[in-house]
Automatic annotation (TrEMBL):
This is Penicillin-binding protein. Residues 365-627 form the Penicillin-binding protein transpeptidase domain. The keyword Transferase applies. It catalyses: Preferential cleavage: (Ac)2-L-Lys-D-Ala-|-D-Ala. Also transpeptidation of peptidyl-alanyl moieties that are N-acyl substituents of D-alanine; [GlcNAc-(1->4)-Mur2Ac(oyl-L-Ala-gamma-D-Glu-L-Lys-D-Ala-D-Ala)](n)-di-trans,octa-cis-undecaprenyl diphosphate + beta-D-GlcNAc-(1->4)-Mur2Ac(oyl-L-Ala-gamma-D-Glu-L-Lys-D-Ala-D-Ala)-di-trans,octa-cis-undecaprenyl diphosphate = [GlcNAc-(1->4)-Mur2Ac(oyl-L-Ala-gamma-D-Glu-L-Lys-D-Ala-D-Ala)](n+1)-di-trans,octa-cis-undecaprenyl diphosphate + di-trans,octa-cis-undecaprenyl diphosphate + H(+). Gene3D superfamilies: Biosynthetic peptidoglycan transglycosylase-like, DD-peptidase/beta-lactamase superfamily. Residues 670-733 are annotated as: Disordered. SUPFAM superfamilies: beta-lactamase/transpeptidase-like, Lysozyme-like. It comes from Streptomyces halobius.
Length: 733
């Protein structure tokens, strides 16, 4: 056994290599660099031994980057993603033919020499000297493996790749030094296995398993003789001998490999001749990399998985570390995506909104109580075409989405929940005039809001007094303006935060009265998860997309978990269920109601019809659908969407049916539990008084809504920054 000197000196093998440095190592450098021998020996000798001493003692072999497979909740494949398409396998999973072929054509004396092939070096030096140029190199298979390790470690950094492959003496010395160490530590069989897993075979295939799948659609262990010879021949020049684009060159190269195998007695001459007569028969599979290959519109969800991985510290303390781990790959990621739900929401999107329509649609469905994202759909496909996009319209900006969209009246239940938590009765009445100024001042979390903004209802016939149930069903704007003015803005802000409802652009909620009417921008995923709080008895659970991850060795990795918290009492949640059931049963959301199961929800349409929403839920699924222009420039008047002409777009007539069809398909064959509710009498019955004097429908003193001349033009009610956001009306707000 070779021994090291005290103090970590060179082994006997390394000492021998160093001793030969002046005469042979220089030649190895020259031969490996494919440089002419004449005139360069002195340069090689000078500095080679010194540099050899200064190099680190251990070769750092990075884990090989491999493909990552993303699966749905049932184990079905969503997509494969990779920096390099590779699947690492052992020698037992490689055909004996490929093992013999690669050695025969790349390093015939592999099993006879050490890290450096002295005989090969001398032969190459002699041949190159006689030719006065470069006709032969002498890198061993071990040296090639070491060079590939340097390239692998460089990743996608072009500068580092150039350094790893540069034709310099210094680089060659590093390669030789590490090759000696590798030979001692790994042994021949392990080196061969590693080489066949790391090397590039063209057509984006790294390693023999990926190459076998790419060219022949089979595992490496099943390669036939002629197939193995073809792949072994690719290593020298994957582009020149590419059987897809240069079949004649590939055939000649394959036959060269076959003859070399026969000369070395790896196969008989008869076997070589028979294999050489066979035409190349490929079963080529095109590279399928990335979320663009996902089916049923799951490309956006696939990309969301990548964003989750790169943003969560569970996968690395820094973003740089997470990016490196993602590119390393080799993972199997099982997600929360339910294939039935995904197919249903995407089918509904495509049915109701065409990809070339002037507006788009997006939506998400989550599971109450777990936060699991079950589906994520979009009318514009994932891609780079004219009607395609890679922007995920269902999520917030930092996860690949945009700045979000004003939610309109779908924010009103948040205000109602805040009021109920403050002790407001569901029988609370307000005068609810057709048009009114925002009461001022209004209490905020850190002071008071003062201003002169105004709000109005959709129809002039909508004049109160209204109680909470009827105001919610009809989506009466002025009712909710009066409600938030009485309870203050801060409770509504805190309720939204407790329900996970935050702005899509990452900014803090603006504490203004118009927030009651949905004047701030949210994402569909945020709204779906927020409404799931009502279905879950008042407990909010943050959205999660990943169930589990295993690495290339099958070891489980830590994944982020949903974080659940109580946002409101169960009584408040059940009361909101009652209010929102009324919306789909007798209110603005009738067109969105589900058949044969309890559902609840809310319509929403913004000022000038830039956006329309429906957000609703059952006990086992909560979904949000948005329709509008991602650029916030198209007003949805006299517009054709999905082949249907709309004079005005409402939350009920476009997002509502999308939600209905998506949820119907998603829940088909699944249980239909009842939503827990609180009885609330309808208007006109004996509602009584709530004990606070709020049952008389006269408004609340200082607000004095609807008094005098507010319908006159030029009164100056609208103040920039406080839009006149519409809502309510029988048209489906």
């Amino acid at each position: 056994m070779a021994k090291k000197r005290d103090g970590g000196g060179l082994t006997r093998t390394q000492q021998a290599a160093k001793f030969l440095g002046v005469s042979v190592l220089a030649g190895a450098v020259l031969a490996g660099l494919a440089l002419p021998a004449a005139g360069a020996l002195g340069l090689a000798a000078k500095g080679s031994v010194e540099g050899f001493d200064d190099l680190p003692a251990n070769l750092k072999t990075p884990p090989l980057s491999q493909r990552t497979t993303i699966l749905d909740a049932n184990g079905g494949e969503i997509a494969k993603v990779y920096s390099r398409d590779r699947t690492v396998v052992g020698l037992k999973d490689m055909s004996p033919y490929i093992q013999k072929a690669i050695v025969a054509i790349e390093d015939a004396r592999f099993y006879q020499h050490g890290a450096v092939d002295m005989k090969g070096i001398l032969r190459a030096l002699n041949k190159n000297a006689r030719s006065g140029g470069v006709s032969e190199g002498a890198s061993t298979l071990t040296q090639q493996y070491v060079k590939n390790v340097f390239v692998e470690e460089a990743g996608n950094d072009a500068d580092k790749v150039a350094q790893a492959t540069q034709q310099t003496i210094g680089r060659k010395v590093r390669e030789l030094k590490y090759a000696i160490q590798v030979e001692e530590e790994l042994g021949k069989r392990k080196i061969l296995q590693n080489y066949l897993n790391i090397t590039f075979f063209g057509q984006q295939a790294y390693g023999i398993e990926a190459a076998s799948q790419r060219y022949f659609s089979k595992h490496a262990k099943d390669l036939k003789l002629e197939e193995a010879a073809l792949l072994a021949g690719l290593v020298q020049s994957p582009s020149r001998y590419d059987p897809v684009n240069a079949p004649e060159e590939a055939t000649r190269r394959r036959n060269t490999v076959l003859q070399r195998m026969a000369d070395l007695k790896d196969i008989t001459q008869a076997q070589a001749d028979a294999a050489a007569k066979k035409p190349i028969q490929l079963s080529y599979s095109r590279p399928k990399n990335g979320c663009i290959t996902a089916v049923d519109g799951a490309g956006f969800f696939c990309d969301y998985i990548r964003k989750v991985f790169l943003s969560d510290k569970a996968f690395g303390k820094t973003r740089k570390a997470r990016v490196k781990r993602w590119n390393q790959g080799g993972m199997t990621i099982r997600t929360t995506l339910d294939p039935q739900t995904q197919k249903s929401i995407q089918t509904s999107m495509s049915k109701h909104v065409y990809e070339d329509d002037p507006v788009a649609a997006a939506g998400a469905i989550v599971e109450p109580g777990t936060g699991r994202i079950l589906g994520m759909g979009q009318s514009r496909p994932y891609g780079f075409g004219k009607t395609e996009t890679t922007m995920n319209l269902s999520v917030e900006r930092n996860m690949g989405g945009g700045a979000g969209y004003q939610t309109g009246s779908t924010f009103k239940p948040v205000v109602a929940a805040a009021a109920l938590e403050q002790g407001t009765s569901p029988y609370q009445k307000y005068s609810s005039p057709y048009r009114m100024r925002y009461p001022s001042p209004v209490q905020t979390c850190n002071g008071e809001w003062t201003g002169k903004g105004s709000a109005q209802n959709e129809n002039k016939t909508e004049v109160g007094p209204y109680g909470m149930k009827e105001a919610t069903a009809k989506s009466v704007n002025t009712y909710f303006v009066q409600l938030i003015s009485e309870i203050g803005i801060c409770p509504a802000v805190k309720m939204a935060q407790s329900m996970g409802i935050e702005r899509a652009d990452g900014k803090k909620l603006r504490q203004v009265p118009s927030m009651a009417l949905g004047g701030q921008e949210m994402s569909p995923l945020t709204m779906a998860a927020g409404y799931a709080t009502f279905a879950n008895g008042g407990r909010y659970c943050s959205p999660v997309a990943i169930e589990s991850i295993t690495d290339a060795r099958g070891r489980a990795m830590k994944v982020p978990q949903s974080s659940c918290r109580t946002a409101m009492s169960k009584q408040t949640a059940d009361t909101i269920n009652t209010l929102l059931k009324g919306v789909v049963e007798d209110g603005t959301g009738k067109q969105a109601g589900l058949q044969g199961r309890d559902s609840a929800g809310k319509t929403g349409t913004t000022d000038s019809r830039y956006a329309a929403w429906f957000v609703g839920y059952t006990p086992n699924a909560s979904g949000a659908v948005w329709v509008g222009d991602p650029q916030h420039t198209t007003k949805m008047y006299n517009i054709t969407i999905g082949g249907v002409l709309h004079e005005k777009v409402y939350g009920a007539d476009t997002p509502g049916p999308i939600w209905r069809d998506a949820m119907t398909g998603a829940l088909a064959g699944k249980p239909a539990p009842a939503l827990p509710t609180i009885p609330i009498n309808d208007p006109g019955t004996d509602q009584g008084d709530d004990g606070k004097g709020h049952g008389d429908g006269k408004g609340q003193g200082r607000d004095k809504p609807g008094r005098g001349g507010h319908d006159k033009p030029g009164h100056g009610w609208h103040v920039p920054g406080f839009p006149d956001i519409l809502g309510g009306g029988s048209g489906g707000w």
